[in-house]
Design goal:
This protein is an all-alpha fold. Helix content is 65%, strand content 0%. It has six helices and no strands. The longest helix is centred in the C-terminal third of the chain and has 26 residues.
C-alpha cells in the first residue's frame, strides 16, 4: 500500500514564488503596492505607473491592471450599445467575471507572483 506524500513534503518539492518585500520608491512594500494597483481598476494602475519609477514588479502589475480594466470598461461600453441583451450580458457575465479576475489578480500580486494573463500579461511585460 502506497501512501500519498504529506502536504509538507509536496510543499518542499515545489519552487516557492519570490516574495517582493522590498520597499518601492513610494515607501510601500512591493507586493502591497502591486496589489493596490488593482484596487480601483485602471485608475490605480495609472496612478502607480506614474508614481512608481523603479520597481519593475509593481510597474508590471500597474500596467496589467490598466490594460485589463480599461479593456473591460471598453467591452462594457460596447455591450451597452445593444439594447436589453447587452445589459443582461454585462450584469450576468462581465461584472461577475471581472470581479473574480480582480480578486485573483490582487491575491496573486500580494503573494509576490508576477501572474501574467494571456495576451495582456505579455503586452504589460513588454511595455514596462
Amino acid at each position: 500500500m502506497t501512501r500519498a506524500p504529506s502536504s509538507s513534503a509536496t510543499a518542499e518539492n515545489r519552487a516557492e514564488a519570490p516574495v517582493h518585500t522590498e520597499k518601492t520608491s513610494t515607501g510601500i512594500d512591493a507586493n502591497l503596492a502591486a496589489a493596490l494597483s488593482y484596487l480601483v481598476g485602471f485608475v490605480t494602475g495609472v496612478i502607480f505607473l506614474v508614481v512608481e519609477k523603479e520597481n519593475k514588479f509593481v510597474r508590471f502589475h500597474a500596467m496589467q491592471s490598466t490594460l485589463v480594466f480599461a479593456g473591460i470598461v471598453g467591452i462594457d461600453i460596447l455591450l451597452q450599445l445593444v439594447p436589453i441583451l447587452g445589459a443582461l450580458l454585462v450584469i450576468f457575465l462581465v461584472i461577475p467575471a471581472s470581479a473574480i479576475l480582480w480578486l485573483l489578480l490582487m491575491f496573486k500580486a500580494y503573494q509576490g507572483e508576477e501572474y501574467k494573463l494571456p495576451l495582456v500579461g505579455q503586452i504589460a511585460a513588454e511595455r514596462i
